[in-house]
Amino acid sequence: MDIHAILPSKGRDLRLDLFRGIANWAIFLDHIPDNAVNWITTRNYGFSDAADLFVFISGYTASFVYAKMMLERGYIVGATRLTKRVWQLYVAHIVLFVIYIVSIGYVAQRYSDPDIIHEFNVAGLVDNPVETLRQGLLLKFKPLNLDVLPLYIMLMGLFPPVLWFMLRRPDVTMLASFALYFAARHFEWNLAGYPGGSWYFNPYCWQLLFVFGAWCALGGTVRARRIIDSAPMLYFCLAYLVFALVMTMAGRFPAFGELFPAWLFDAFNPNDKTNLAPYRFLHFAVIVVLVIRFVPKDWPGLEWRVFDPVIKCGQQSLAVFCVGVFLSFVGHFELMMSSGSLAAQIFVSITGIAIMTLVAYYISWSKRQDKPLPRPAPVKSPDPAPAPERARVEADRP
Predict the structure, then answer these.
(1) Chain center to CA of 316
(2) Rounded mean pLDDT of 244-252?
(3) Which of 21, 167, 287, 291 could cross-link with 314 by S-S, CB 3.0 to 4.6 Å?
(4) In the predicted model, is pLDDT for residue 370 greater than 50?
(5) Taking CA 263 as the corner, what is the angle to CA 260 and CA 268, rounded to the nearest 5 degrees?
(6) What are the boundaries of each domain within the chain?
(7) Helix and strand totals (H; E) in the chain
(8) Residue 220 per-residue DSSP state
(9) How many CB atoms are located within 10 Å of the residue 343 CB?
């Protein structure tokens, strides 16, 4: 079967690092309740948020990294490298899982605050610790705010055959992803959670964003470039962003929401995040179109030093994400124990982002130290004088 995908041009795409860093910062801020600083994140001004961005970029980067490996070294090699990455993600999740629940349990015991155990969904560890931990290893038990990594692990684990088809029939694979998405919404498919309920991020639905990222990376946007650059598409995107802003604000402020008819308000509020509502996916797709149109890969602004910290956080995404999730719990606890004033919220938010950035710079520096130093160029000895010249020099000696 012929390859119909178009691999991205060589060279690192700093747009991915920039937006992945923004997503990590936003997820940290959004995970801190009653934090005024998270009003700067996109979730307050439209249907999609940082989680959509994180999943999309994950699919985008996984596709072009492992697609090239599959084409050059075969499917088996590419699939095993993907499996290795899944194992790394799983280990990171388990380490974060253990540290997270131990920290919550310690805080609850140290400060006699049992309500925090229920707030962060770890009460099962008190009643049935062995089974709860076993379910945690199976990704079925997830404390509060630990939902994204299990979704990422699941999508990456099932990605090898998807990528094989995406390389050969990208548009058909994208249509199949849409079919699974609508079937899951219609038949209410989801994975079971523990001790009850289901996954907060329904993988049958959220796979659409992951596959959409892969489709964009492997030539989808190139084939759709004429549509992306058209004037009607621009007007539609801008109009939809304004509409999403209005509907989101209607949900945030009840008095404003009462100005709209109930059928319109109820169609978009509450925002269906679990099953990735169609209007939510469309909102994110609109943002992707505008970024492709106005922020090219070679945009000079990507080299501005002001973006260095967030780009560095995007380049060390996994570690920064894990640190951010833990710091969001610490920040929430700090605000609970303090006055919770606006100054405290700003301090907690800035401090957390600073720590995440320091971690990213340290890991980047540490990786450079692991690489062997370049060998110095060998010093060439001067060429010996020709035989007649040496004879003349020796004859001149006393």
Answers:
(1) 11
(2) 96
(3) 21
(4) yes
(5) 80
(6) 14-367
(7) 20, 0
(8) I
(9) 10
